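Morning!

This is the sequence you dropped in the shared folder:
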Amino acid sequence: MTYLTRQYGSNPRWLLKALREVPHEVEQLLAGLDHEAAAWRPAPDEWAAADIAGFLREAEREDLRAIRAMLARDGAAIAERRAYLAPGEHAFAQQSLHELWSDFLELRERLLWTLELADEAWDCRGLHPYRGLVTLGTYVHEVSERDLEAAWSLRKLADQRPPAASGARRRRR
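The structure's back. Tokens below.
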């Protein structure tokens, strides 16, 4: 999927479309997982579906804060992204997958509205502690890449999950 983001780059219309659509794909990959399947890991050091959902929620929180800061003041300081540490710091597997995902969707809606209202401000920048100045367009492009990576990780996880831990609710015929 990376070729799509390379082809369309940081086009605001394409990025907003991707930010709306990819979460629906992720939601389909999470749908029907029971608690056991959501907490299943292919290896002790790898993420479960619940970890991916929790990571997305925490990342969305960070990104919303950073984007709002950039829009409030060009060159505003933005924090280093730490959400990738969240699965090690939080017990997402013990939390409700539904609540993690609902929280993410609420944050995504806020992020989309913030970007819709940004209008022509896609060139505003934030000052990252290690990368220097980062434009809003670049930052949002990275959010889109993260979403695609999460969808890919969930598809890979579903392929690795043994049938006994699939957790998908079976329909009776």
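Headline: Strands lie at 76-77, 125-128, 132-135.

More detail when I'm at my desk.
O.
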